[in-house]
């Protein structure tokens, strides 16, 4: 008799997926844990790039001590295998591991058995790989381009050339140029379709000036609220009821490092002020020159 064995298909193991919590706080749409460095614990590379510098240095120190401790114990297991080292001395084995891992080679202590030479070979390989990884991570952290751009704390809606216009400010905090800077503004709000399905829709807002060849001082970003605008016919109450959120994205090329930099900001319904205008920050000096006073960058005044 012949028996046929049938292999049962193994069901894939269901991994527990993390739950992402969303909430609205003071009119702003927030994702809990967004941008927090310890939220990348499932992704070690991003964790090492986002962890604060103090934690990064402390982690390197702990790893360095731990790896030398492991090899020191390995040397001790080989007995008296290191020349000029005290037999059974953990500190001598530890400092010999430090010299081997860093390729210092003072010459006072050296391996004298085949076992010790094997451990030294393994540690040399680990040391080369570890230095390459740590150097790459440190370089990636140092070379990561950042943009120091501030946005006004609020956005305003006021008449401009007789048409209601959404306006907010942006300023470059560095004294250099951001070349080919592009500003994009998106409107996010809750909607219910004709079939009764809830959706979070995203609309592009057309700007009067979406790109500038050189962003160095301040930028007044404006969107005309006409019949084609998603904000047309909306009020302060309807913005709050639909949980409206303005997402701002700025990209450009930093002239100093010649790399692309970006900045982002958001305005909730409570951050949009109606019938207000920004205080002027561009002034004329007595000698005919102009200057910008950033101390009133966030200030607004109600329209008369």
Can you describe what's shown?
- The structure is a single chain.
- By secondary structure, the chain is α+β, with helices and mostly antiparallel strands.
- It folds into 2 domains: 37-143, Helix Hairpins, CATH 1.10.287.70; 149-302, G protein-activated inward rectifier potassium channel 1 (Immunoglobulin-like, Sandwich).
- 26% of the residues lie in helices and 33% in strands.
- It has 5 helices and 18 strands.
- Helix 2 packs across helix 3 and helix 2 (53-77) runs antiparallel to helix 4 (114-143).
- The longest helix is centred in the middle third of the chain and has 30 residues, at 114-143.
- The radius of gyration is 31 Å and the shape is elongated.
- The termini are far apart.
Q: How would you sum up the global shape?
A: elongated
Strand content: 25-35%
Class of the largest domain in CATH?
Mainly Beta
Largest sheet: 5 strands, mixed
Give the H and E element order: EEHHEHEHEEEEEEEHEEEEEEE
Low-confidence stretches: none
Number of helices: 5
Second CATH tier, the architecture of the largest domain: Sandwich
Count of separate structural domains: 2
Please compute the radius of gyration using only Cα atoms: 31 Å
Q: Which class best fits the helix and strand makeup?
A: alpha+beta
Detail the topology: elements first, then pairings.
Blueprint: E1 22-25, E2 28-31, H1 44-50, H2 53-77, E3 82-83, H3 90-101, E4 110-111, H4 114-143, E5 149-151, E6 155-160, E7 163-172, E8 178-192, E9 198-205, E10 211-215, E11 218-224, H5 236-241, E12 245-254, E13 259-268, E14 272-274, E15 276-278, E16 282-284, E17 290-292, E18 300-302
Helix pairs in contact: 2-3, 2-4
